[in-house]
Amino acid sequence: MLRNPGFVGLLVYRLLAMLSYQIVAVTVGWHVYELTRDPLALGMIGLTEVVPYFCFALFAGYAVDHLPRRKLGMFACLGLLVTTLMLAGVASGTLPAGAFGIGTFTIFAAIAINGVVRAFLSPVYMSLFARVLKREHFARGAGVSSVVMQTGLVMGPALGGVLVAWGGKTSAYLVAAAFALAAAIAIVSLRVTEPPPPAERAPVFQSIGEGLRFVFNNQVVLGAQALDMFSVLFGGAVALLPAFIHDVLHYGPEALGVLRAAPAAGAVLMGLWLARHPPQKHAGRLLLWAVAGFGLCIVGFALSREFWLSAAMLMLSGMCDGVSVVLRSTILQLSTPDEMRGRVSSINGIFIGSSNELGAFESGLAAKLMGLVPSVIFGGCMTLAVVGATAKLAPKLRRLDLRDLQ
């Protein structure tokens, strides 16, 4: 599979874009908390990104199904480049900050633009994934893809934390900009055949409606997406890590990089295993158990007062999430017609990708109302409740065997 130049090139694009995005995520979180010392401000970072993401995601999916996918990916990466340069300008004092409630106007404007740009990244990747691999290789390819994605999630936060500690915020933003430029070059250079444009384009809203009907009429796809969305919405603790490190564990920005990377490290280990042993039997039950394990690990993290125990809990949560990522990606690829991949991927992004940012806002608000530790315990317990509700309301997902989709 790694001898396939198209698949390798696509993985390089994903890794470079992920590194850029994750370095910015770590740096801007530290930047904003340094200015405000307010957990709610950390939640506002997520809300500022997710609102424009919601507004543009469906239109991005339509564009991916009707326009050259590599060019769209290139423009999205160039958008990441612009936003990181804006943030570097603020950090260095080159651009004016401009007071805007919490933080600064320019920082949150750059985050909002990032939300628009990110709406294109995943649909481009998911639609090209099906062009570079045969259908029978989707499950194994999803495992390899998960390893690459999670490697970016390990390296990006760790690198971001080190850059902030040793070189400052400006250096971190500039390195992220370099990765964004490299990702743009990688995607435009990708060797892959794209489907010919449709002879007739359906009206935008009619086409988007077709994608929505497909997802909402498919219990397996809808159940898997809803399970992840609500579990991450309530169970995510990553947005609050700067507050945990500063107020509970009493460490510096290097520790932030380690804890941000810990879940991804666990997911990489699990992805390596699943790439060699792709799941087939009892996939639905395995997905439910994995998400339940994620919720229990989040509760364990909230109760920990030792740095390395906290890191271990987050690593275990990443292993559980790694199972979920591979299964959800495989279900989506096997269930979606090729001509609808952009739209379905964008809907999946609304469920999955935006849940991280919306969950960041929920985490910040809950921490403000309930206190830092109680809010994370509550979120882990809510994740367990979501698993129980999904098992009852989506019996087809609970009984799913991936061989039924091939």
Automatic annotation (TrEMBL):
**Which segments does the entry list as coiled coil?**
none
Query: What is the first-listed, main subcellular location in coarse terms?
Result: membrane
UniProt entry keywords in alphabetical sequence: Cell membrane, Membrane, Transmembrane, Transmembrane helix, Transport
Task: Identify the PROSITE patterns for this entry.
Answer: MFS
> Could you tell me which CDD domains the record lists for this protein?
MFS_MefA_like (cd06173)
Q: Name all Major facilitator superfamily (MFS) profile domain ranges.
A: 1-195
UniProt entry tagged with the keyword Zinc: no
From the record, give the transmembrane residue ranges: 12-33, 39-60, 72-91, 97-121, 142-166, 172-192, 220-245, 257-274, 286-303, 372-394
In Pfam terms, one family for this protein is MFS_1
Q: Does the keyword Cell inner membrane apply?
A: no
Signal peptide: which range, if any? none
Location of this chain's protein in the cell: Cell membrane
Membrane-topology annotation of the record: Multi-pass membrane protein
For this protein, the record's Gene3D superfamilies field holds: MFS general substrate transporter like domains (1.20.1250.20)
Similarity section:
Belongs to the major facilitator superfamily. Drug:H(+) antiporter-3 (DHA3) (TC 2.A.1.21) family.
Q: What is this protein called?
A: Multidrug efflux pump Tap
Its source organism is Lysobacter yananisis
